[in-house]
Structures are given as C-alpha cells and as structure tokens.
Amino acid sequence: MDLAIPQREELLKTQEALLPYVHRTPVLESALLNELSGARLYFKCENFQRMGAFKMRGAMNAVLQFSEAEKEAGVVTHSSGNFGQAVALAAKNLGIKAFIVMPSSAPAVKKSAVRTYGGLITECEPTLAAREAEAARIVKATGATFLHPSNQIEVIMGNATAAMELLESQPELDFIFTPIGGGGLIAGTALAVHYFGNECKTIGGEPLAADDAWRSLKTGKIETNTNTNTIADGLRTNLGDVNFPIIKMLVPEIIRVTEDEIIESLRLIWERMKIVVEPSSAVPLAALIKEKGRFRNKKIGIILSGGNVDLAALPFSHSKQ
Amino acid sequence: MDLAIPQREELLKTQEALLPYVHRTPVLESALLNELSGARLYFKCENFQRMGAFKMRGAMNAVLQFSEAEKEAGVVTHSSGNFGQAVALAAKNLGIKAFIVMPSSAPAVKKSAVRTYGGLITECEPTLAAREAEAARIVKATGATFLHPSNQIEVIMGNATAAMELLESQPELDFIFTPIGGGGLIAGTALAVHYFGNECKTIGGEPLAADDAWRSLKTGKIETNTNTNTIADGLRTNLGDVNFPIIKMLVPEIIRVTEDEIIESLRLIWERMKIVVEPSSAVPLAALIKEKGRFRNKKIGIILSGGNVDLAALPFSHSKQ
C-alpha cells in the first residue's frame, strides 16, 4: 500500500488529546429496529455530541495542532451548517478567534448558534465561489489558518474517534455504516475500522440524488454532482484529494438510497428510538434496510452523524403515514 | 396521617417485580438547560421506556397482581393514547388477553401500535360515557378486569418506580417536577420522594388551560375542567379519589404554564437535548423555567413522561423561532 495513511498510534494519540473537549457519546440499541432489519444494530449517537454533530471531533483536533503563532492569528472556515459551529466552539475552547464565512441565505438559527459559540460571522453571496473568495480574503487580511470541513487529514483523524469509541464498546462489529458526503466522516471511520476492527468493513450510505461518491468509486477518480436535490443536506458536497484515496483503499462499497427511503428511515429513528437526528443521519440505516437480506444476523454499527435540524421544516406529513 | 398509603417495603417489592419488564431509563443532563434555568437538572427519560412512556410501569404492575382466574379472563381499559398501548404490551408479557376500547377518532397510528402489541381493539363513539359503557359491557361479557390509567393504587405504585430509579442515581435532589394530568404519575412520584428522597419535594407542572389539579389543591376537593384546550394532550383528564388524597398530602405545589411556555420548553428539549418527547413532558420544564428565580442552584429531577408524538402534527413553525 503506497498511500501514507495515519498510523494506529497517531489515532490513539488523537483520541487522547480530544478527551477533554468531546463527549463520549452513547451507543443505543433498538429491539424494534433489530427486528425490522434482521441484524443487530448499534447506533453511535453523535447527535448528542457537543454542538450537535460529529464535526466537533475533526474541528477540535485541527485547532489542537495549531502553533502558538497560528493560535494568535485565529482560524477561518466557510460553512452553511455544522462545521461553522464546530470550528467556532473548538476555537472558543482554546481562546482562539474564529472567522466563519456564511452564505447570507443561511438560516438565522444557524447564524445564532455560531454567534453563541463566539464565532465572528462574515456574510457572503450564497455561492461556493463567493464563500471561498471571502475566506481567502480573511486569510490574507488576518493570517488566520483555513480549515476545510472534510478534506484535511487532522479533521479526518478527529472524525475517526467516533468509530474508535464505537469499536471499544462493540469490538466484534462486522460492519460500520456511515453517511458519505464530503468524505471526511467515512474516511475517518474507515481508518478506525482498519486499525481497530476485527474483520470489520466500512460501508457508505449515499443519496441517489447526489451519488458522486458512488460514481467516484466506480471510475476511480473524483466525480461531482450536477445537482444535489436531496433532503440529506449534509451530503451534497464532493469528495476531496485527501479523503478520496483513503476511501478508495478502505471502503469496499457504497449503497445508494432514494429520498423516500431516507425519509422512512428518518421517521423510524425519530418514532422508534425517540431521538432527534438530521436527515443525513438516516441515510446509512436506509442503506442497510434496502439491502438487509445481505446483512442478516450481522453486528452492525451505524454512525448517527448529528441532530441539528430545523424543527419548522420537517419532512413528515400525514399522507406518508 | 390518617391516609393508608403504600409502605416503603411495598414500593421496593414493586420495583423488583417490574425489573424483567421495564427499562431502567437513562438520566440525561444538558449544560445549556442548566445554564438557562440556573439550576442543575436531571431528566429521567421515560420517552425511552418500553412502548414510549412511563405508563408501562403502572400497567405492568397492575397485571402482575392478577390471580390465575383474572389472568384467564383478561384485562380491559379504555384509552385514546398511551395507556391502551401499555396495557396491551403488559398483558402480552404475561400471555393475557387485552381488550382496549378506543374512540373511533383515535389516530390510525395509535390503533396500529395497540394492535402491534396484540391488543384487541373495540371502537366506540369519542365520548367518555361511550368509552366507559363499552368497557363495562366487555367486563360483563368476558369477566375481564378493568384497569384505570391513573386512579388505581397498583398503577400508582408502578409509576413510582421511575422516581425511585431517579433518586437512586441522584439521591440529593431538592425537587422532582412531574406533569400532572390524571394524577397517577405525580401520586407515584410523590410516594417515591416521600420514602426515598432526602428533604426532597414533589412539584407538579400543569397547563393553565386545564388547571383542575391546581384548583383542586386550593379547594381541597376534586375540581374538573370545563374545557381542556391544551397541546399537552396527556394532561386533559381529572384527578381521582385514589390519587387525590396522596397528592393533597405529599405535593406542596402545582405551577401552571401557558401554551406558549409549553411549546417553548418542548422546542428546548428537542433542539438542545436532541430527544423526542411529547408535549405533556415539556410542562414540568416550562413550570421550572417560569419560576426559576426560586429554584436557583437547586438540584432538580424532571420526569419526561413519554415520547409518543404525531410527527406530522408538530407545533413548531418558523414564525415562533
């Protein structure tokens, strides 16, 4: 294997360094979902993580690597969602300034959350180009360090700690399912499974409506989406040159699911487990249920990525019941 | 004290008898809600209980007391909600027939849940008189035993076990807040606090729109509601002659809250704790927040009564954010 991936020891050090800053989230089971899937499921509840998503792990690990000079200058990212909150809270933990570039169209509740964590918000036009330009301008003006939400090895290593904890609780998992969006969570999970699993495999769940990662695994190069019309708003982004080689090497399969399948699994998690998760978190369960014949009686970990949802815009309606 | 309330030993035996049939539900904390309330809060999560509510405890304890002849004949209740499910599941655990009278207007999802647990549903007109008449007819025809959801001592003693578990985890609570509807949960909680608390007090939270219990405590006799237009649909019922004497003796205070206060606390629990609870469960937190000046720095247990909600009919809208 040519690729220089992080070593086992480095992941253990990462986990230890994060201890004071992240929750060890609970692992929940559901008799009903076991019955329904025919497998034995272990849900790693990153919706209960600080700021409400696994993103806290990667952001925190990234700022922990900063030199004194870098800490002095601060950190920058652009985000319409969870990563902005994660960077703001991670920076706050170390007394670092956090500049968060947010599209002007971002919901007020997300801007307010970033502000609660002390993030300094700059608004920009709601395009990726505008976001990148504004972040670059801030880097130039302040000397702050730019953090990417998924395509940065420190972030990936931080993300790995969720699956490490899950494998500590359940060492005999046969599979761990995660959502796949920008690729940062699944790359970290795959590293954890590689070093700490016992004949365990990592499987991705992806919306059919934004199946760039599925196509990338087929062609062997990073593919992009022409549109991303999925309710799983955390999974609309593309893979990157840091995470894709890890995914190509360590993720044998991605299973694609429809919007109806995502919404049905989201409803199952809310109704049966009584927990609030975001639509992206329902994608791996939907993937498992879709292919449940192949996973019968297996022990399966599922990473519930986060729980920051807009309660005023839920996809549940009477007609779907 | 003239009232013959259940003894400490009887409650301990009840708890032991229920062990195989109920979950020991987790106790969750929230740094943000601690900060917001100025107190230290411990949430007892009965939304994670079997069939999704504390009602499982009382129903199970009641059927456990049945003689062989009573088991043979079965159990009857009338319910539009959680208690029907609880009785059906409790009966299923012991291989007993459960006759559940439900108003024809009950949501399909609730009927389906009762059926899942093997309950035999009889539909009737959506009035209390029709429900009682139909239940009486079944008792007469089958010899089955009628269970009341809140005004029966075995049910109250079963309900007490939630607060007993909470006090085992947190023996130094100053107060336990519960919702008050039919009175079965708060009566059980108050018994647990009386025997197992350490200078702990039980406080009720009640919707202003159905404040019969608050008025009953004032007048010293059971008052009723002329209308019950509250979102907390579990709290529309009146107290009974079994639970009211316990409440009068052991509950020093009921705090009333508006519908907006209930919805705001419901939102806080969903958004900040990432758990699904029913509107009735938000009432005690709303009561605490309303009077938070008086509870500053106190250790407070809050019983989250259940999590069976209709996801298609939530009270959250953008205008309220």
From TrEMBL, chains A, B:
Cofactors required: pyridoxal 5'-phosphate
Domain Tryptophan synthase beta chain-like PALP: 20-306
InterPro entries: TrpB-like_PALP, TrpB-like_PALP_sf
Organism the protein comes from: Pukyongia salina
Name listed for the protein in its UniProt record: Serine dehydratase
The keyword Transcription is annotated on this UniProt entry: no
Keyword set, alphabetical order: Lyase, Pyridoxal phosphate
Molecular function GO terms recorded: ATP binding; L-serine ammonia-lyase activity; magnesium ion binding; pyridoxal phosphate binding; serine racemase activity; threonine racemase activity
Gene Ontology biological process terms from the UniProt entry: D-serine biosynthetic process
Family: Belongs to the serine/threonine dehydratase family.
Taxonomic lineage: Bacteria, Pseudomonadati, Bacteroidota, Flavobacteriia, Flavobacteriales
One Pfam entry name: PALP
